[in-house]
Amino acid sequence: MAGFHPSHQVKGLRSPDLLLALLMYLAMDPDTNELIGYVVPVFRTSHEFSRGLVEVQEEVKEEGVGQVAMRNLFSRMVTVEKKIELRKKQNSDNLTHPPEFIVRPRGQTVWEGKTVKLHCTVAGWPKPRVAWYKNNVLIDAKTHPDKYTVESNYNMHSLEIKNCDFLDTAQYRASSLNIKGERSCIATVVIKSRGERILEKHPNSVFSPSDGFCEEHGVTFHADIIESFEVAFGREGETLSLGCTVIVYPTIKRYQPDVVWYRDGVALSESKWVHSHWSGDKATLTLVHLNKEDEGLYTLRVNTKSGFQTHSAYVFVRDEEVELEGVPVAPLDVLCHDANKDYVVVTWKQPAVEGESPILGYLIDRCEVGQHHWAQCNETPVKYARFPVTGLIEGKTYTFRVRAINRAGVSRPSRASDPVTAIDPHDRARHRGPSAPFTGMIKFTEEDATVGVVPGEPTDLVVTEATKSYVVLAWTPPTQRGHEGVMYIVEKCIAGTDCWQRANTGIPVKSPRFALFDLAEGNTYSFRVRCFNSAGVSESSAPTAPITVGDMLDLPAAPGPAVATRNTDTSVVVSWGASKDVKHLVGYYIDHSVVGSNVWTPCNNKPVKETRFVCHGLTTGDLCVFRVKAVNAAGYSATSVESEAVVVKAAIAVSDVPIGVHLVEAARDYMVVGWKEPIVTGGADIRGYFVDYRTVKAGFIGQWRELNHKALTTTSYKAENLKENYFYQFQVRAVNMVGISEASLPSMALECKEYTLAKPGVPRCLHVLEVRNTSVVLLWEPPTFDGRSPVNGYYVDLKEAAPGEDWKGANNKATKLKYMKVNGLIAGRSYVFRVRAQNLAGVGEPSTVLGPVLALTMPGTHEIVLDVDDDGVISMIFECSKMAEGSKFVWSKNYKAMTDTSRLTIVTEGSRSRAIFNEPSLEDLGIFSCEVTNTDGVSASYNLTEAGLKHLLDISHDHKFPIIPFKTEMAMDLLEKGRVRFWTQVEKFTSDCKVEYVFNDVIVENGKKYTMNFDKNTGIIEMFMDSLMVTDEGTFTFNLIDGKAKGSTSLVLIGEVTQSVFLPGPHFVDYLDFEVTPECNVLLKATVRFYNRTSSCLFFGLQLCRKDAGMYEVKLKDDRGKDISLFNLTDAGTETLLSWFYSNLLRRSGVLSTEHGIVLYSLVTHHNEELQVTWLQKYIHITASDTYVPSLVNEPTEKDKGKYTINISDGKDGVKRVCDLSGQGRIYRARVVGGLPDVVTIQEGKSLNLTGNVWGDPTPEVSWLKNDKELVSDERYALKFENGKFASITIASVTPTDSGKYALLVKNKYGTEAGDSETMCLQGPWTH
């Protein structure tokens, strides 16, 4: 394209308009006058139109920029005349027109698998672009070409949806857009499932819409929601998670259901506050940093290609604790509306709690996105929950928050609003086009404004809001305003005058909205608007009708009286009449108060618009009243009339459906069906049942027909006059005082014929009791038909309720019981169960699967407790904390209803039931269980074994015949002057305890002879007698009676015991005898008794010698009598005593090695002048001292070996000891045998060496001393000990400080010796 010149390329163009248009979009170099690129105009338009332009650019990129540019440029040149003619036809008036739907898309309803095509025709100039949306989500046909096809030809547009399925049911919107605006049109498409199609053709078909067959996968999907979330409570600032376990079966590889969460019916999307997660079997929703905006009804919807399942529960969010007592809580739901260049309307909802005084107004804060500074928008609090914020900067993005204020202070701020940008919604978006293909350059220019065009006047001026604080005006911009934009002047005029004043004196208004704040309340004003641009000022708009400054919105009227009805143990249903003639109702707040407390608590913190609300989180048993108030932007209404007081307790309702409809018996023309009563009876007794039946033939069923017109009182019914080989289904309804329940699940199709199979049928009526963390009790009924032989056992199978799990047996050996406790479960997991019956022909088919059952011990679960009361009555006690209206305790034994009422007596009081054993015996052994009706399976059991029964009977006997325990049995004390005390001490008794004092079976009384006392503080019982006579021989007894408890203790005074007690005076129990102590002291002692108190008495002690011989006598005497004891210590007696004496005389003998030699010694216990000591060993005699008798062997040699004898004697008798010095080897004491000089004189600075010769066996230890202080070897002193003989000390350089006394010390186990010490005087160097 080099050298391209427009004058060369456009000569063939005959239209000057086309040439002008072409030249306007060519960029020329002013120096070379050559074409250098395209000029791409920038248009102002909406965001949607900009997105359409971007899509066009994507197409350009796909085809190639150069190719598209050249094609568009030169194809226009060739066909320009044709296109001009076409444009004249399309736009005959040469004016732009907004989009307009000539033909709107029509809603359609089709069957699954079909194709839907939506058509529309759109007019407008410039030619509008059309986009298609599904539920407000843009449809991208390029991303899903197999699902969608979008076409646009000659203003006719279409959307084709292929192979429709259930999820294609939605609202489809066609949106057309050009520079003049946007128009939309909605069509609803409904996709009906195969099941619905069958129902239309065959209304009695067994198919249902929720079980649609999926042709794509060839299966029917079933979804079950288990372990679902319940009503939840959170507090602002906390994090709350909701979760459900979802089971979808059958399992198809790479297929997952669509899981959607809703709040108050609105689908939730991911945000900073909301996070959802789907793991394949568990759906979780996490609410981060709770706020009151998060309160509402949460619903989980699981969509499959066969239908959907939902679960809902309410989430309540309580206010965060206020920082200052009495201030209001934070407002909620801050939203932004009608955003423009410099203006936005902020709305919010009033909080449920105003604080200790009414709310005076609200403060609005704003913050630019990316900043952290909040600026207050209004100086004076506003009463309305709506406020126009002006003064915004065009193009800036803001968030807003609101605070409430009352007399006590300001509340915490609300949660910030979503960001909003201050921009004119009618502005055209600026768009940057692609570069020219031959230059690679892009130029951006603003499209030239229309010069000299004065804008037209604004239209449709209205007052949208009017309050005491402000008035908001809105108008439509002028059609004629050029491309540069316009600004506005707002004028006001007091009604009745013609004086117009400018209202926006400071800053011109850029938006077609304006709020006036400086108006006088009560005055009447009119308003008008002008617009202006650089060309001039427009004419004024038509003025508004006169309006008086004041509140246009009134407070809502008080709601109708509140009516409260019981619902559950923790909730109450409150309904009320709607407020009349209320405008712009925001909702209602409900408060409750416990009667007598005078404290009102909000039941909801987010207003609800319905006139019925379930108040949760109440306390069971409380008596509460309720009231309601309405709220709109103007404020709160007066509260409604309070409801009547209602007790928070489960309400009486229609019962649940009967369960387990099954065949009991069948013949050729009749069938007997049975069922079980509902688990939840609705709080009232079941009064009867109604049975319906219908025929089933070739997959189609007939109408339900009643079998009985009068309610049945039994749980079985015989249906007669049936046809043989026909199939029938049965359903049952229960009746209580409230009404008739829904129909039960239909039974399986049952054939009316006699049973002829060999194996047994399937067990029926499976249900579980006693669900705990690790176990459940599974019960079932036997098959209707046993087969050719009776059923002789059952097998129980279980598996986890999760995809891919296999069945496993709970028992390897068939059980004959019709119940089983299944152990080994894992807490928090869900399980399913089935049972198979067995007879001689084999094992039959499994029963219907029961479950899933969650293995979890519910809070408040109680077990059966065994009790033995004070009367010895044995009973079982079961408590239920979840009693509902009409709940009953049902006791059974071995899981069978107890027909023999003679064994147990049932007593029920409130939530506590007691089963009393009338006569406990072995007949009562077994498993006793108790189930509470009208609850969620509250039950427990107790296995009474033989050992357990025996233990209970022992406890019962002790309770029936209690024995008073004694700390001590009865005892007797003899006191002074012959008095006698009988006493005992009781361990446990009451203040009613009484004592009988008995002597020889005769009750004695307090009197002259007997004195009684019972100290109930200490439990000591006493009986005193002045004296004991021979006539008092017999049995003394204390009998105690304390209620029905008894106790007895006795003391017998008969025979020898009596004689010892009745002696007339003091006497000897043990007569005089002697004892020689280890110190050789001789003791004379005896045992005497005074007044029945026995003691050992030491009369005197002596160190025996022969002159102590003689007769010793001790006398006892008092006024009752005397006694004498003698001890013979004459010659015969002395010899006996001396033999004891001499045996203890010598304590120890031995050998001691000292520095003086070897010492032979013996320790003498006693010595006197009569005792002579002699040492004998080879004629050597050594005189001994009094207590230490040494014999010294100095410098022992071989000749000193041998035995040494010490002899101690009084001339007649004595004792000898021998010391042996004839041991193995030589024994030598450590010695210094020489070598050390007496005195050493040495010159200063010389070296000194002292050496001593050492001797000893074993080799001695050696040490050196200086001035009696031990020396150690170091740099100054060198100490050596060589060959075990030579010890030396060396001082290298002597100084005067080395002068002193040196000694050599040797030591071994036989002794220690210090060598001859030497004094060494050191002198200084000699002088000449």
Automatic annotation (TrEMBL):
Q: Does the keyword Transferase apply?
A: no
Instruction: Pinpoint the Ig-like domain residues.
Output: 99-188, 203-316, 852-945, 1190-1323
* Organism from which the protein derives: Esox lucius
A Pfam family: fn3
Keywords, in A-Z order:
Cytoplasm, Immunoglobulin domain, Muscle protein, Repeat, Thick filament
Q: Which GO terms describe its cellular component?
A: cytoplasm; myosin filament
Where in this protein does the record put region Disordered? 413-437
User: Which locations, inside or outside the cell, does it occupy?
Assistant: Cytoplasm
One BP term from GO: heart morphogenesis
Please, which domain of life does this record's source organism belong to?
Eukaryota
Read off the Gene3D superfamilies from this record: Immunoglobulins
The record's InterPro entries line, in alphabetical order, gives: FN3_dom, FN3_sf, Ig-like_dom, Ig-like_dom_sf, Ig-like_fold, Ig_I-set, Ig_sub, Ig_sub2
Q: What is this protein called?
A: Myomesin 1a (skelemin)
Domain (Fibronectin type-III) spans 330-425, 457-552, 558-653, 657-755, 762-860
One GO MF annotation is: structural molecule activity
